[in-house]
Design a protein that fits this description.
Order of helices and strands of chain B: HHH
CATH class of chain B: Mainly Alpha
Helix content of chain B: over 70%
Number of domains of chain B: 1
Number of strands of chain B: 0
CATH architecture of chain B: Orthogonal Bundle
Oligomer: heterodimer
CATH topology of the largest domain in chain A: Four Helix Bundle (Hemerythrin (Met), subunit A)
Order of helices and strands of chain A: HHHHHHH
Number of domains of chain A: 2
Number of helices of chain A: 7
Structural class of chain B: mainly alpha
Shape of chain B: elongated
């Protein structure tokens, strides 16, 4: 087992554990903290895949901006802990869990069973540079210029929508 | 890259499933919201893994756009949660069912 595999296994266990903790926790604030831990694990996985810019963006945008917003709203609404899972274990929840198990099997079958996806078609030296700020910037302002500009419009619409929605008198 | 691609795909599938389980079993709207973020992230991981293994950066550009959309979704979604809480004093999605029928 190489060092990279070991790091991957550690990060994967951390990511899955924090995700499960997030779903199981009854206090929404603890869920948010578990999700932040999950984001850090994913950022490290991105680094392992040579996606440096995305690793930084994962921490800055997700753990930094989005989760701060979520934690802020949780504290603003002053929510208590949810009811115990066992108290409301009804047919709907059990059906949900059964469907989730089916979905996991299906996903694993499709993703892992569909033959072998061959490794890098390009040499590793070629793939190592695709995640840098320089190459991402070149692609975003060249090949993906139109989607990039539309994204800015989307963000503007989201800002206006959030302000309108959160106003006192709708 | 000594870690094979199926490892990343399997991890991504597990994370996505945990997110779905959260959406289906939790009743707090904000936690449901965070589970959706988790699902978005698991798909991002798939895209980055394919991008790295195929030597094509289109997947990473797509992840960039997914992050931007997720940020917009977070802002609007949380604004909706606040508006609903102001009207109904709850974020329990079992009690927010006026759009259901």
């Amino acid at each position: 087992m190489t060092a990279e595999t070991l790091i991957f296994v550690l990060l994967a266990v951390g990511a899955v554990a924090s995700a499960i903790m997030m779903v199981v926790q009854r206090n929404p604030l603890m869920s948010a903290l578990c999700l932040i831990a999950n984001f850090f694990c994913l950022a490290a996985l991105y680094l392992l895949l040579h996606a440096q810019l995305l690793a930084v963006l994962e921490i800055v945008v997700y753990a930094g901006a989005i989760m701060v917003l979520v934690v802020f709203v949780i504290m603003l609404l002053n929510l208590g802990a949810e009811n115990r899972l066992a108290e409301r274990l009804n047919i709907q929840t059990m059906l949900g869990v059964a469907l989730v198990a089916g979905l996991l099997l299906e996903l694993l079958y499709v993703l892992l069973g569909s033959g072998t996806v061959q490794g890098p078609a390009v040499a590793t030296e070629g793939t190592a540079g695709i995640g840098t700020v320089e190459s991402m910037g070149t692609a975003l302002f060249g090949q993906f210029l139109l989607p990039f500009e539309i994204t800015s419009l989307l963000l503007l619409a989201a800002v206006v929508g959030a302000v309108i929605l959160a106003k006192k008198h709708l | 890259m000594s870690v094979p691609l199926p490892f990343y795909l399997g991890l991504s599938a597990v994370l996505f499933t945990v997110g779905v389980a959260g959406v289906l079993t939790r009743r707090n709207a904000i936690v449901v919201f965070m589970c959706i973020e988790l699902m978005l992230n698991s798909v991002n991981l798939t895209l980055v893994a394919f991008s790295a293994f195929l030597g094509d950066m289109t997947g990473q550009a797509l992840v960039f756009f997914v992050m931007a959309v997720a940020a917009a979704e977070a802002a609007v979604g949380l604004a909706i949660v606040i508006a609903i809480f102001r009207n109904k004093q709850t974020v329990n999605i079992d009690e927010i069912n006026i759009l259901k029928w």
